[in-house]
Amino acid sequence: MPRDIDPSLNRRRLRIELRKARENAGMTQRDAAKALEWSLSKLIRIEAGTVSLGVTDLRALLQLYEVADPQLVAELEDAARGSKGQSWWAQYSDVVSPQYALYLGYEGSADVIRMYNPVILPGLVQTADYATALLSAMTPETRLRQQVDLRLTRQERFFDGDDGPEIDIVLDEASVRREIGGASVMRRQLDHIQELAQHPRVTLRLLPFSAGAHYSVTTPFILLGFKDDDDLLYLEGPGGGLSSRDDLDLMASYQECFEEISAIAYEGDRMSELLATVRESLDNG
């Protein structure tokens, strides 16, 4: 399905343009909040893209920042009207943490998504059977169906249709050899990976055991790239979440790690051959 304009994307457009306008006006967040007699926290939330913005408040900001371009004003007013309402994942709110909801908002507007998981297959490549088997080991039965549906809906939004980001995934040999759900589930899962590798916006690589240790050998991570904003890092796991844009050293470490493992990972025919070898071992097991 095409990626419709989610409220979180409109809030992101407002966040970028309003921060740029404030900085062009030579004002700090505290200056702007004081001039409008707003609380500082209100302005911070608007510029963080975590709340919707009414047209009246938008116009007050644009007037303060002396933004007068009719086309830009009209576009931002449309974005403000579209910043309200529920995001696509609202129906899964029982199983989406606040941190993950924030991530999904950014993911939906990314131009490039790069990811690596050293232990299991990333959610974007999982089949329904694999996801069910994996999540059943850690999710209450009452929430299992919702968790699986969330993953499948997320996949549909990226892979069904011509529009969407470039997706670059490095799989780990450990993840394709770990039998989640048994041999038959894994055979179908490996076939699915082979099919997904043919998608025009997807690049799949496979990091072999022989690669040895590297910076993220124990940590799954996702890098989101934007044409009009700084990259974002999402560290997966119980203690994970979006990193601060100000933590440049941490971001650089994971960017370098992704480049390093991508350079030594198998791709194309070599990846397909290793996947076929793993599948054959399942047939003979």
UniProtKB/TrEMBL annotation:
<feature type="domain" description="HTH cro/C1-type">
    <location>
        <begin position="18"/>
        <end position="72"/>
    </location>
</feature>
<dbReference type="Pfam" id="PF19054">
    <property type="entry name" value="DUF5753"/>
</dbReference>
<dbReference type="InterPro" id="IPR043917">
    <property type="entry name" value="DUF5753"/>
</dbReference>
<dbReference type="Pfam" id="PF13560">
    <property type="entry name" value="HTH_31"/>
</dbReference>
<protein>
    <submittedName>
        <fullName>Helix-turn-helix domain-containing protein</fullName>
    </submittedName>
</protein>
<dbReference type="InterPro" id="IPR001387">
    <property type="entry name" value="Cro/C1-type_HTH"/>
</dbReference>
<dbReference type="GO" id="GO:0003677">
    <property type="term" value="F:DNA binding"/>
</dbReference>
<dbReference type="InterPro" id="IPR010982">
    <property type="entry name" value="Lambda_DNA-bd_dom_sf"/>
</dbReference>
